[in-house]
Design a protein that fits this description.
Layout: E1 6-10, H1 15-26, E2 31-33, H2 45-55, E3 59-62, H3 70-75, H4 77-97, E4 102-106, H5 135-155, E5 159-164, E6 166-168, H6 181-195, E7 199-203, E8 209-210, E9 212-214, H7 215-228, E10 236-239, E11 245-246, H8 247-258, E12 263-267, H9 282-285, H10 295-309
Parallel strand pairs: 1-2, 1-3, 3-4, 4-5, 5-10, 6-9, 7-12
Antiparallel strand pairs: 8-11
The structure holds guanosine-5'-diphosphate-beta-L-fucopyranose (GFB).
Length: about 325
Amino acid sequence: MDRSARVFVAGHTGLVGGAIERRLREDGYANLILRRRAEMDLTRQAEVDAFFAAERPEAVILAAARVGGIQANDRFSGDFIRDNLLIQTHVIDAAYRNGVKKLIFMGSNCIYPKHAPQPIKEESLLTGPLEPTNRAYALAKIAGVEMAQAYAKQFGLDAVCLMPTNLYGPRDNFHLENAHVLPALMHRAHLAKQAGADHLTVWGSGTPIREFLHVDDLADAAVFALEKIQGGPDALYNVGTGEEMSIRALAEAICETVGFSGELRFDSSKPDGTPRKFSDASRLNALGWKATIPFEEGLKATYRWFLENQNALRAA
Ligand code: GFB
C-alpha cells in the first residue's frame, strides 16, 4: 500500500479507529479520509454512498461500531444488532461498488461459540451456540465476516477480517456501567481510592478468563493487514497476545496500578459471560505479526491517560 493512498478510517473518534489513525499518520500516510458522525452517519446508506462516490477511497479500515461491555451488550441488544448490521453493510457494499482495493473489517472474538475449544481457533466459527449476553452483537459481526468473505468470493473484494480479543488503552470508554471490564474497574477503583472506601465491587465471580490486547497493538495489526495480507474468502485472523488472566487477577492488577488497597467483593447478581476467551493468534503470527506491548506497561499508560482526562470522559 502506497503511503499516498487515500485511506478511509471509519470510526476514527473511537478507541480502535483513533489508534489506527495515529499509527497511519506516524507511518507517513498523508491522505487519510476521516468523517465524524455529525458529518456522515454510517447507518444511513445514502450518506455512505454519496461519500464513497465523492471521495473514492482506495482502502477502507472499518473500525466504526457500536460496542460496550457485557451489560451494555445485554441491555441495548437491539441497538447493537441494528447499528452494527447497518454500518458494516453500507460500508462493505460501498467499498466494493466504488472499487476499493483493500478492506479491513474489524470484529471481535465474541463471534466464537461460548464453549469453543481453547485457545480459540478461527475454525471454531459457527460450530456452536453463542454467549447469550452478547449474541446480538456477535451475530452482527459474524454477518460482517460472512459478507466480507462472500464479496471476496463472488466479486473479488480484497477483504481481511481481524478478530481482536478484549481491547484496552488510552481514549477508551470509562463509563461505570456500560464500559468493558478493564476501564470500568479502573474508574471504580480510582473512585474507591478517592473516597477512602474499604472495598471495590467486581461483577460476577472473578473466575472468567480474558485476554487483554493494547489498542496500539491492534492498530499495528491493522496496518500489517493493510500492507501485507492478501484478502480473500478465507482471510479471517484472530488478534491476541497469547496471555490470559482471570477477572480477579485483572482487578488485583488494576488496584495495584491505581494504588487502591481495599478488599475485592464479588457481586454474583451480575453476569460472568463467557467462562474463557483466549484466542489462538497463530494464523496471524505465522505471517510475521506479534503483539509487543507488555500488559503492566499498557495498564499504567492507560491509567495515566485516565488521570489526565478524567474531566472529559465519554458520557455514555
Ligand atoms: O469487558 P466485558 O464487559 O465483556 O467483561 P466480555 C465482562 C467480564 O468482566 C464478566 C466481569 O466476567 C464480568 O462479570 N466484570 C467484573 C465486569 N466487573 C466488571 C465491571 O465493572 N464491568 C464490566 N463490564 N465487567 C465483551 C462483549 O464480552 O467482549 C463485547 O460483550 C465484546 O461484545 C468484548 O466482544 C470484546 O469480555 O464478557
